[in-house]
Backbone:
C-alpha cells in the first residue's frame, strides 16, 4: 500500500504538487487505507484542496487543509466544474480524513487560524509596488501581461483563481467612450457583476485591448491556452521568473487585499458581501485583525448616531 501511495501523481502534473505532495502522502499514510482503490480515493480527495490552498498561498499542512473553514471554502469555490454529488463525495472523504488525522476537532481544540499566515495577509503598499515592478520585469510579453492581468483581476475586482480561469474577453465590459466604469461579469456558481476599482481600470482595459479579436469567445487570461484545468493560474505562475525583492503573487492574497481596502474605505458591508460573492460574513471574519482601529472619539460619534 505504501508503494501505491508513493507512486501517486495527479493528472496534468500541476506545478503545486512538488510543494504539497509529501504532506498529502503523509496524511494518507496516517489514514491507513486497506485497499488500493481506497488509497487512490483519499489521495485524489486530499490533493484537490491541497492544490487549491497552494494556489491561495495558504500553509501546506493537514491542519489547514482539513480545517472546517477550508473544507467548506474548497467545496464552495474550489471545484466549480464538478457536480453536486462529486462535491458531496469530496466533503465526506475530507471530513473522514479530518477525524482520523486530527480527531473530531483540531488538536488545538479550535479551528486553524488561517490569518496567522504571512501568506494569507494583505499585501503592503511596498509589496504591491515591488510586485508591479516584478510583473513588468518578466522576460516575455506573455508573462508580463499575464501577471498584470492577474493583479488587475485580484486587486481591482477581487477574483480568485477559480473565477479567473473561465473568464472571457467579452466578460470585461466598458462604456462606449471608454471613460466610464469597467464591469467584470464572472462565471460559475458565484456569477455576478463587479465594478473594477478605478485605479485598476486602465490596466484591465489595456490587458483586454491587446488581445486579438477573432470573433470567437476568447479567454481573457492566457488567451491561447485552451486546456483550462484548476491549475491554469498556478502553472502559469510557475513559469515566471522569481525575484528576491518581490513577494510571491498569490490570487487569494490579492483578493484579501481588495477586501481589506473595501472595509477600510467604509463601504456598506452588504455591498462588500455582494461584490465578494459570499452568502455569509463567516468567511470575512479573518479580515478583522488587519483592519485599522477606529479612534475612540470617532467611534463614539458613530455609535451615538447623528
Residues:
Amino acid at each position: 500500500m505504501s508503494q501505491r501511495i508513493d507512486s501517486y501523481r495527479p493528472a496534468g502534473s500541476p506545478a503545486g504538487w512538488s510543494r504539497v505532495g509529501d504532506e498529502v502522502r503523509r496524511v494518507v499514510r496516517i489514514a491507513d487505507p486497506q485497499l488500493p482503490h481506497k488509497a487512490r480515493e483519499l489521495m485524489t480527495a486530499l490533493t484537490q484542496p491541497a492544490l487549491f490552498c497552494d494556489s491561495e498561498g495558504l500553509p501546506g499542512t493537514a491542519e489547514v487543509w482539513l480545517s472546517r473553514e477550508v473544507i467548506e471554502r474548497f467545496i464552495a469555490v474550489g471545484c466549480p466544474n464538478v457536480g453536486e454529488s462529486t462535491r458531496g463525495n469530496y466533503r465526506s472523504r475530507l471530513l473522514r480524513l479530518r477525524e482520523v488525522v486530527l480527531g473530531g476537532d483540531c488538536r488545538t481544540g479550535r479551528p486553524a487560524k488561517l490569518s496567522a499566515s504571512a501568506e494569507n495577509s494583505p499585501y503592503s503598499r511596498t509589496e504591491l509596488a515591488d510586485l508591479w515592478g516584478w510583473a513588468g520585469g518578466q522576460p516575455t510579453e506573455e508573462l508580463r501581461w499575464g501577471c498584470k492581468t492577474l493583479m488587475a483581476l485580484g486587486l481591482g475586482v477581487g477574483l480568485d483563481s477559480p473565477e479567473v480561469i473561465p473568464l472571457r474577453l467579452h466578460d470585461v465590459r466598458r462604456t462606449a467612450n471608454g471613460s466610464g466604469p469597467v464591469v467584470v461579469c464572472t462565471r460559475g456558481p458565484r456569477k455576478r457583476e463587479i465594478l473594477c476599482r478605478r485605479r485598476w481600470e486602465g490596466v484591465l482595459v489595456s490587458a483586454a485591448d491587446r488581445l486579438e479579436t477573432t470573433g470567437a469567445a476568447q479567454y481573457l487570461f492566457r488567451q491561447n491556452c485552451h486546456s483550462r484545468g484548476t491549475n491554469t493560474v498556478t502553472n502559469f505562475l510557475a513559469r515566471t521568473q522569481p525575484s528576491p525583492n518581490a513577494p510571491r503573487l498569490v490570487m487569494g492574497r490579492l483578493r484579501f487585499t481588495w477586501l481589506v481596502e473595501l472595509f477600510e474605505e467604509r463601504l456598506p458591508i452588504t455591498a462588500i458581501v455582494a461584490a465578494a460573492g459570499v452568502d455569509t460574513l463567516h468567511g470575512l471574519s479573518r479580515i478583522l485583525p488587519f483592519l485599522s482601529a477606529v479612534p475612540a472619539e470617532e467611534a463614539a460619534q458613530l455609535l451615538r448616531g447623528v
Observations:
- The beta strands are 172-174, 182-185, 193-195.
